[in-house]
Write a structure and sequence with these properties.
single chain, 114 residues, four-stranded antiparallel beta sheet
Length: 114
């Protein structure tokens, strides 16, 4: 499963967001990997638009596995003030975007038809 999501970092603290993500806690990295967040990347625009991408077995399941970890609770608390919507922990404020095109999927479908 490929998942893309968006969120919004406050533009005034975008550099701080980048700084924190340049050195994510090793135990957070391990928790993400153990929970199944594969090929996970974040992209941040200067206006604070945050785009995330990951591959996983099931997005609901990998989110639930992370929610069970103490390190995730601590990380979300640390990051909360950097987001535009501080009412929710950052990882609960993601808006998942529906996938509308994937090159490999369409190439495979075309070769199956041919």
């Amino acid at each position: 499963m490929r998942v893309c999501f968006r969120s919004q970092v406050q533009p005034a603290v975008a550099d701080e967001y980048r700084r924190r993500h340049a050195q994510v806690w090793p135990e957070m990295l391990e928790a993400l990997k153990d929970a199944g967040w594969d090929n996970y990347s974040l992209f941040l625009a200067d206006d604070g638009l945050l785009i995330g991408y990951l591959e996983c077995d099931d997005f609901g399941s990998v989110r639930a596995r992370m929610a069970l970890t103490d390190v995730n609770a601590r990380w979300q608390a640390e990051m909360r003030s950097l987001f535009a919507d501080t009412e929710l922990p950052p990882d609960l404020g993601f808006t998942v975007l529906p996938e509308v095109f994937n090159l490999e999927d369409q190439l495979a479908a075309a070769s199956d038809e041919g």
